[in-house]
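pasting for the record
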Amino acid sequence: MPRGIRNNNPGNIEINRANAWEGRVPLQSNIDGRFEQFVSYDYGVRALIILLRNYINSGRNTINRVFAAYAPPTENNTQQYISFVSDRVNIGPDEILPLSKQVLKELTQAIARMENGRDCISDKQFEAGWALVPENIRSSIGQSLYVRSEGLLAYPLSANERALVVLIENG
């Protein structure tokens, strides 16, 4: 069983004493020693969602910037990681990442796949982790509605913009 799954940490988030993740196994009980362990898989997914949200909000708002920090070349084939995630989420490595639930879901699923060698965050598991994210954080994140057209990504749409898209699509 891959380490990230065994630790209920599908993103293989490293221990950082500055991060007191909700649902983490106390450090004195963590038998891994390098990576966080969580009391349930849902809390590991939650932590990955929040970590990615924090990266994007702090200016690490492209796949290149996220993975320069998340998967540094001293430990990973960072370019391979970037290419994999970029292809998986259909967002260019230097495109600004919209802060939306859909993008966070796709990123968490791609990271978990890369870290564990298999798909290991289903839509249902993402939703369970999402439900544990505090409401004030969830409400600050755009919902899953954005338009992809010919490989381009548009930012989350307002209600008026969504209505316009529906009108255009319906002729």
